[in-house]
Amino acid sequence: MRRMLGQLRAWTEGLRLGPRLHKWSGRIAVLGQRMLYPGLRIGRGVSIRGAPCIVMHGEGEIRIGDRVRLISDERRSSLGMYTPCKLTTWPGGRIVLGDHVALGGTIVAAQGSIEIGSRTMIAVNTIITDADRDLAAGKDPWARPASPAASAVPGAPGEPVGGAAGIRIGRHVWIGLNVLILRGVTIGDNSIIGAYSVVTTDVPANAVVAGNPARVVRILEPPAADADGSRPAGPPDATAAVPEDTP
Amino acid sequence: MAGLLRRVRTYLGQLYVGLRLDKWTALVGRGSVWANRLLYPGFHVGRAPRVYGRLGLTMYGDGEIVLGDEVQAISDWRRSDLSVYSRCRMTTYPGARIRIGDRVFLTGTILTCRKVIEIGDGTRFAPNVTIVDSDFHVMWPPEQRYQLAPLEAEKGVHIGRNVWIGMNSVILKNVTIGDGAVIGAGSVVTRDIPANALAAGNPARVIRQLDGPSGGGRAGETGGGPAAAREAGG
Asked: How confident is the model at residue B220 (pLDDT cuts 50, 70, 90)?
């Protein structure tokens, strides 16, 4: 019975009512999802284009702050969007999006806790996931990890909890396109993640990182940046390019 | 009113009617190119374009997009020997200019232009390449990152003739790629690449010169082409 319900939910996810009037279909879908998922909280003034997909396996929590933008229609993106926004939680997973967060075609999948601070901008095709498998000897790597909620410190960075460790992204972070952010990573406030980076380690505040694996290219010091106002000498941080309503 | 018109254009410019059979899609794709020409006065197409699937075209304000003769654009994943994630998209912001030379092959290529993107004759793109010639947001202060970055210092992206760009690469702002260069798959090109160089990596670095003593001639003319791409991570 539970299984059937789960399947029904997963199917209703992708359901779009009516024509693809992008302003409304997404909202209707999200409202429908709110009824389906008790753990889903949506703030005021959330802006949705296209039909983002929200899937919560079992008990979980997704909190979407005020005035969050979930851009899921490729026509609304200046860059090529490969997929609509997708938020997934596995049992015990938790996704918190702060206020004014802008996501465009971003995939967020949480086994533990993924927190994204307010006013963070994330460009298209970025994948943020703390999903991993427990590869310790004697364990079945394909077993579902235990719920991190049972642990004392759920999803503390660097602390693998049942195969998952949380991700924390600070405020005002600017994440470029096609970035991959893996488990256990903490990204400090105001940092910039270059396009096509693979972030596997913590990023300090005010840093510009790029590459695979991502390395610090330079630290943005507020007075210096004010003084010359120049761009970094290193790899450019490339286009968060969150689709704007006005160009 | 202008906003409404823009929205109508954005929608119609990508409208796509017809069966998803290859032949018809190609025809409709051509139709869509001509429809786009009607919609956007700044859009010019050369002789005999070949378009498979929909070409996603968005021009904010008065920009210019010029396609040369015999340009091929594949936007349909069925028509690519690999696959494409997204259709070919060209987006110009006010005053921006995209110029694509003759016999250029685009495959799910995404061109986002605020200043200028120039692509020389005979350049070929493997699937899923993105070219962006701006950062779009100011870097500092972080509270104002929603603002568009200033354009004065931007030089745009210039790609020479007969360049071959590997799949899933991205070319970022202020990059010039010389004639005959080869960019390996999955590269992130952040700096200029000289002519006839093989470059790859994230960030992309020159691995060797293809016209040097060990280069083995121009890529694509000898057996060195695909092998070079493989060596470069493709």
From this structure: very low
Judge whether A10 lies within some domain.
no
Whether B170 sits inside 8 A of A226 (CB atoms) is no
Q: Which amino acid is at A131?
A: A
Catalytic, out of B7, B44, B47, B137 = B137
Q: Which domain holds residue A51?
A: 40-130+165-219
Closest CA to B86 of B58, B105, B107: B107
| CB-defined contacts A:B, below 8 A | 122
Average pLDDT of the residues in B41-69: 83
| Percent of the residues in chain B that have a pLDDT greater than 90, as a whole number | 41
- In a domain, residue A236? The reply is no
Is B177's pLDDT higher than 70?
yes
Count of positions (residues) in chain A: 247
State the residue for tokens 């969150």.
Answer: A242
| CATH number assigned to the domain comprising residue A79 | 2.160.10.10
Does residue A91 sit within a domain?
yes
Residue A29 pLDDT class (50, 70, 90 cuts):
low
- Put simply, whether the predicted model's pTM sits higher than 0.80 gets the answer no
CB contact under 8 A, A119 and B93: no
- Examine residue A122 and state whether it is found in any structural domain, yes or no: yes
Closest CA to A132 of A122, A120, A123, A145: A145
Residues in A closer than 8 angstroms to B56, CB to CB, are 74-75
